[in-house]
Amino acid sequence: MPENLPWRTVWVTGASTGIGREIVLQLAAAGVKVAASARSAERLAGLGGNVLAVPLDVTDASSTRTAVDLIESKLGPVDLAIFGAGTYAPVDVNSINPADFAHMMTTNYMGVVNCLAALAPRMTEQGRGHISWIASVAGYAGLPKAAAYGPTKAALINLAESLYPEFRRQGVRISVINPGFVETPLTAQNDFEMPFLMKADEAARRTIEGLASGRFEVAYPRRFAAILKFARLLPYPLFFKLIDKAILK
Ligand SMILES: NC(=O)c1ccc[n+]([C@@H]2O[C@H](COP(=O)([O-])OP(=O)(O)OC[C@H]3O[C@@H](n4cnc5c(N)ncnc54)[C@H](OP(=O)(O)O)[C@@H]3O)[C@@H](O)[C@H]2O)c1
Questions:
Q1: CA 112, CA 132: separation in Å to the nearest integer?
Q2: How far apart are CA 123 and CA 61, in angstroms?
Q3: Cα 135 to the center of its chain, rounded Å
Q4: 203-220 pLDDT per residue, tens
Q5: What fold, for 9-248?
Q6: What is the 88 CA–ligand 1 centroid distance (Å)?
Q7: Catalytic residue among 109, 140, 149, 220, which?
Q8: To test the ligand 1 pocket, which listed residue (11, 13, 17, 140) has its Cβ within 8 A of the most ligand atoms?
Q9: pLDDT tens, 142-154?
Q10: Residue 234, SS3?
Q11: Where are the domains of the chain?
């Protein structure tokens, strides 16, 4: 963890469990003022008295605007926002349910867009700030079981690439966090072996370090991210051969 973190006030969504929770705990321990959001007020309360709990559902745009008002009135301007609220369910190709796909897109993608729309005007007005969101290495290329989840994460990577240049001209940084497999309630449902599985506190540490370093993309574990990026560049016959061998077996 870098000694002097460059933020006074940070807002984290998806903060009640998993990676988001660990990020909140590590930032608060480093003396940063943190606002933590998720739907479960009870779990947010468990983060401790020095964290501002701001329960919300990211799919409700008006509640994200209310949250920004509350956070800035209590803690001052947000220097960094990490949008991590997300959900995952594996897809069975023989029972494709459009409602599951819509739910994941609404939470993972529109949830970020709602929070971004609520916060970005405050930052552009001041000409400073940093907004980041958690996509996934699953957004690099289509992977088995991830037919509903992967497209939401590909969309989030594309969103960050699309927004970065124009926000930068207004003094606001956009970045994207792409974790591999991390041990959290989200991955507990996976019944397959997860390569390079990482603990949530380690993922949080790498996230904070990466964001402080100023990179556009914070991806970890590095080797796993590099393998998947390389796979994405392969011609499709080779790509699908690799998926068959490495994942479906
Ligand atoms: N674990 C991994 O291997 C992995 C890998 C790559 C990317 N990611 C991404 O990292 C992020 C965090 O995942 P995690 O693994 O830490 O999972 P997690 O422990 O299940 O955390 C998900 C968080 O999102 C919140 N959330 C879900 N729906 C919400 C909604 N509608 N409104 C507000 N908050 C909502 C949950 O809290 P409530 O239920 O209290 O609302 C929880 O705090 C997700 O975006 C996930 O896709 C995870």
A1: 9
A2: 18
A3: 5
A4: 999 999 999 999 999 999
A5: Rossmann fold (3.40.50)
A6: 8
A7: 149
A8: 17
A9: 999 999 999 999 9
A10: coil
A11: 9-248
